[in-house]
Amino acid sequence: MSYKFDTVKVRGGYNAKEHNNSVGIPVYATAAFDFDGYDHFNNIRAGAQLGFLYSRVGNPTVAALEARVAQLDGGSAALAFASGMAALSNTLLAVTGGKGRILSTKQIYGGTFDLENDVFPSIGIEFDLIDHDSSIEEWAALIKEDTKAIFVESISNPGARLLDIESLAELAHKNGIPLVIDNTFATPYLFRPFEHGADIIIYSATKALNGHGNAIGGVVVEGKPFNWTEDKYPQFYKKHWVARDLDNNPRSFIEAFPQFPFTALLRTKYLAYFGASLSPYDAQLILIGIETLSERVSKQVANARKLVEYLDSRSDVVSWISYPEHKDSKYKALAEKYFPNGTGAIFTFGFKGNDDQINKLINSIQLFGFQANVGDARSLLINSPKTTHGELTPEELEAANIKPETIRLSLGLEDADDLIADLDQAFAKAFEE
Ligand SMILES: *Cc1c(COP(=O)(O)O)cnc(C)c1O
After folding, report:
1. Which atom of ligand 1 is nearest to the CA of 218?
2. Ligand 1, closest atom to CA 153?
3. What is the pTM of this model?
4. What pLDDT score does 211 carry?
């Protein structure tokens, strides 16, 4: 039976009959699982029977989250992590197999930028970072012999920039490499990467997927299996003792898990050994959050549109607005093509104040939170260049086109009139002598 999105978001991945008819998804607060005997253990170990061994590698509450997100995206499998950064760093490690290059953009989440620019190169994985608005020929020119993936955000952090995902997918596939998408800002409600050619999706579940700012988590979703070639991606073809069959014959991940070799490798070699596993308590919070994903995100989009309209009327204090649906946006056509439900509730604007006045604006908000988060049910704002993108040097900020006057808003579920009134009074206070 294949249900529609809103049915999956409340019911997907969980069958109460397998859990004592419990309507709420139980938290399996356990480190280990008792085996009925050696055969039971061996069957689970070899993947011949569904079951669990140890919660670092898999847990029923976490499995419900993985199955639900996989269904929402139309993927073949998903894997949860303790944070979005764990999902992202482990995915990029597994794709490269520990060496090679990844093509990504300069306009990306600050933590990701520093990971790509500093941490990964220190262990021999290089990144080519391109300007977001480059032509497809410029992208193509940066693909080298040992480039193993293209990695982008579907809506960029912080400037809500968009990309032509289908042409990037085509470019990636022509070169025999997968397209990996950080779909955190969009969530599966606003954008469905697999329908446009992506191969792997990453989420910070901390953000709008959960939506309540009460847990840190991440999810990786695998689409229909990518055609991993043996010369470029030997990690999928190497025979592993840990993937052995019931009779102890070592198998490759492609052999053992042909429907989802990537998440199988990621679980067995990366989640298991780097150990950034999601707690079942947090998995339950995120599952509950997902039950209202469409309702929350659609209201947040409506609030964002109202705030954009208000800021548009305040050209006395606002110099520019970076929102894909905005009349001045160069991403309007992409927004219409890829985002039928809207382009999200996060955007930036330029504040016509000096450094001191930016601080005053931030100190004057009463309803908006001043937080390094997005997608929460409560609205928040932040001066990105000094905070969420504070990892970037002034030169890197300029290259990423993040201007010093940038304020990023993330709209929540409050009444838009109250949010507008809050900005109104904070703008006034920012300019008081
Ligand atoms: C927050 C964020 C991350 C990191 O996620 P955490 O859950 O905080 O580790 C990655 N990508 C994007 C786009 C984000 O906004």
Report:
1. 7
2. 13
3. 0.97
4. 98
Contact 95, 148 (CB under 8 A): yes
Return d(Cα 150, Cα 127) in angstroms, integer: 10
Residue closest to 281 by CA, chosen among 47, 61, 55, 42: 61
Cβ contact 207:184 at 8 Å: yes
User: 152 C-alpha to center of ligand 1: Å?
Assistant: 13
The secondary structure of 70-98 as a DSSP string is: HHHHT-SEEEEESSHHHHHHHHHHHHHTT
**Residues 35-71 pLDDT 10s:** 999 999 999 999 999 999 999 999 999 999 999 999 9
Tell me the CB-side half-sphere exposure of residue 222, using CA atoms within 13 A: 24
The tens digit of pLDDT for each residue in 122-158 reads 999 999 999 999 999 999 999 999 999 999 999 999 8
**Ligand 1 pocket, residue 225 CB under 6 Å:** no
* Closest ligand 1 atom to Cα of 185: 13
Nearest to 62 by CA among 383, 381, 280: 280
Task: Give the Å distances, CA to CA, from 390 to 87, 112, 337, 387, 393.
Answer: 22, 12, 33, 5, 8
Nearest CA to ligand 1 atom 5: 84
